[in-house]
Amino acid sequence: MPAAAAATMEAMAQARERTPYAVAARQLLRDTLFDAARDELGQRPWAEVTMADIARAAGVSRQTLYKEFGTRDEFSAAFVIREGERFLDAVERAVREHLDDPAAAVSAALEVFLATAGEDPLMRLLLSDDGTGGMLPLVTTRSMPVVTWASARLAAVMRDGWPHASEHDAQLLAETLVRLAISYVTVPKGTPAATARDAAALLGPYIERALDSGGA
Fold first, then answer.
1. What is the DSSP string of 112-144?
2. In angstroms, rounded to a whole number, what is the distance separating the alpha carbons of residues 144 and 82?
3. Which of 8-17, 47-56, 141-150 has the lowest mean pLDDT?
4. Which of 63-77, 124-138, 183-197 is predicted least confidently?
5. Into how many domains does the chain fold?
6. Are residues 14 and 116 in the same domain?
7. Of 47, 50, 41, 35, whose CA–CA distance to 125 is shortest?
8. Which of 24, 53, 70 is the last residue of a domain?
9. Which ranges constitute the DSSP H helices of the chain?
10. What domain range includes position 58?
11. In this structure, are 164 and 80 located in the same domain?
12. Residues with Cβ < 8 Å from 172, sequence gap 6 or more?
């Protein structure tokens, strides 16, 4: 086979392995809509932000927005999860840096989450919500999609870092930490470091049994 033809076939194979155009286009649309929502939140409370506002800011039709997400609540949950990705990335790094000490890993993960969340403009907006702004329920009373997503991701990190831990223990610990983190973010008490130390001390026996002792 001529070299040019071989190169062409290789390039075509590589192109097929890349993200399909439709998938990439959809992700771009979703990111554009989420960015528009974040911009709108910087100007007024979530309760005053309509789907039409978000669509207009993103430069798409309202029908396009509803077709992608279905309802305002579904968009809200997806938006909070997208914003939470940054926090979970930092949490994952903290856990992986302390795989030799599960209790320290949990403490570091909770501390970095609380510190990062406290510095984020969107989270500060959430913390200033007295319940009338419409944002607080997204991570409290209507938080189940967020809790489920965050717990599953954190449990996966734990099972990967401590493969001897049972799926039940990893899931239970992950969900407990996620719920604690949400509680402490929405109602802060003390510094992130002090809060993380207290939580790790409280959960210490369970952490040691579920993650550390299981490998012995």
1. HHHHHHHH-HHHHHHHT--SSSS-GGGGTTT-H
2. 15
3. 8-17
4. 124-138
5. 2
6. no
7. 41
8. 70
9. 3-17, 21-41, 51-58, 62-69, 72-96, 102-119, 121-127, 144-161, 167-186, 192-207
10. 1-70
11. yes
12. 210
